[in-house]
Specification:
GO molecular function: iron ion binding; oxidoreductase activity
Strand content: under 5%
Protein name: Fatty acid hydroxylase domain-containing protein
InterPro entries: Fatty_acid_hydroxylase (IPR006694), Sterol_Desaturase_Related (IPR050307)
Structural class: mainly alpha
Family: Belongs to the sterol desaturase family.
Largest sheet: none
Number of strands: 0
Helix content: 55-70%
Order of helices and strands: HHHHHHHHHH
GO biological process, one term: lipid biosynthetic process
Radius of gyration: 19 Å
Shape: globular
Number of helices: 10
Amino acid sequence: YLVTHFSDFQLACIGSFLLHESVFFLSGLPFIYLERHGFLTKYKIQAKNNTPAAQGKCITRLLLYHFCVNLPLMMASYPVFKAMGMRSSFPLPSWKEVSAQILFYFIIEDFVFYWGHRILHSKWLYKNVHSVHHEYATPFGLTSEYAHPAEILFLGFATIVGPALTGPHLITLWLWMVLRVLETVEAHCGYHFPWSLSNFLPLYGGADFHDYHHRLLYTKSGNYSSTFVYMDWIFGTDKGYRRLKSLKENSNLKQT
């Protein structure tokens, strides 16, 4: 139905934008509700809560950025993806092809994001660009995309470089976008649940890992990775987090 009634441009740009907005807000808004009403507080990482005014400011800015930055960027990127081989026609790719490509996207995105994010924590870039994202020291799901427009463009490259290299089917691109949005919302949600992926996947960062990054000053934050933690481990930028986690575990053992 989609390929019959809509053009490639409409599906790749407008369709992708609508899918992104739906997944992002539907996955992020529940955490605002939890925080406002104090539900599941035993799983909340920080005791501090954001005010309704601060949450409202975040939503207003996000809508502005999404319509004025993200949507035009998607439209401008269409010729590039088309030239790289992106298609929406049949046949659909096999699950093996989709799985391999998305795994590749996660790996390359983590590498590029790590270095881009680490650069943003240099003094000048943090002060003039990245500090916008760090306005929320107690993050919630929707703050994952709350950032300076320059940062949206800068770190957005990490998300699109993988698909740009492989020229995926639109279905693969949509699935990648959905998984990436869900991952970044979860990393910023402010809650560490028993069912959080970081409890089951050893290399997965999750909310506890990224929440530490938001609590500290820019010169000492560390934990620059997006999805997985191996880049921080390799380059030693997670030492503070590991030390704090070890101290907490030892403290819990003594109490028991």
